[in-house]
């Protein structure tokens, strides 16, 4: 067979992707440092693959996206196996454990499995029983903390996108209307009108942004979620909500282009603070979001946007080890009252780092190599 038409970069990217997936499902917490002990005695493994937390939800979504573009059956098999095991065990409902239901909704829609009872149960919980802030925002309740009256930028990815997709799959338009309202409310209280970037959190209890952190990975969830939401709902180009979301997205991406590290292509964990460390998982999320925004024509195909995405792609590639581990990934991060707290978060391989890199490389493959 002739090899003249084989693109060596495409081959290399596919190899990186398969290594990322292998590392994703085989990551282990050898030291126990990243185990989460709950009040009832349960121990949640946030680093390993065989547990249920937002870290795994993002990993599952990465597998789904890779399958969408390449038809890779192993990616779906891994996801189906995870759901079989975890649905049998069950977990506590919170803003983060909702995240795997996004992939579950897609798998259910495609006929890979019947997850109706799970989709119905979790979405109804979000609609009627999930704690709310003033103005009806989804309170960022987690395994360990209620986060009373708090909105976090993570919530759009972890709970609002799953609610949206379940609304589409189960033909429940009131879910979709609620998701639209949550996007508008989170933009209202979390996007910084001066920079265009997003604060990590807002509380109605005292009405402030804590340490006013423009945190990298929190911002990347928004760069991902807005294009996903627009595409999911097939919003028309003249749709008022779409225009509002695109304005928000463009303001953020313009700021990201400004703050990208020119030498490495990475972003700092506090985006506008050069004394904070450079971080890979946020960079991968920004890479995916900017690329998808270009593909959906939410931003013009201008050199500054294309170059930012390509530099981010190269930065992600540069931080993947031969075994498929994405390095320079910050551990799960709460909202801090000061910037220094973010700088002290340790770096370690995590499922969401693997999957954000997987999303970035898969989108790059779709935009430039198909």
UniProtKB/TrEMBL annotation:
Which top-rank group of organisms is this from?
Eukaryota
For this UniProt record, the keywords arranged alphabetically read as follows: Hydrolase
Please indicate if the UniProt record lists Hydrolase as a keyword: yes
SUPFAM superfamilies, alphabetically?
Six-hairpin glycosidases
Which residue range or ranges hold the Rhodanese domain? 103-134
The UniProt entry's GO biological process terms, in alphabetical order, are: carbohydrate metabolic process
Task: Report a single Gene Ontology molecular function.
Answer: hydrolase activity
Against Gene3D superfamilies, the record matches this protein to: 1.50.10.10
Entry-linked PANTHER family: UNSATURATED RHAMNOGALACTURONAN HYDROLASE (EUROFUNG)
Instruction: From the Swiss-Prot or TrEMBL record, give the protein name.
Output: Glycoside hydrolase family 105 protein
What's the source species for this entry? Answer: Dendrothele bispora (strain CBS 962.96)
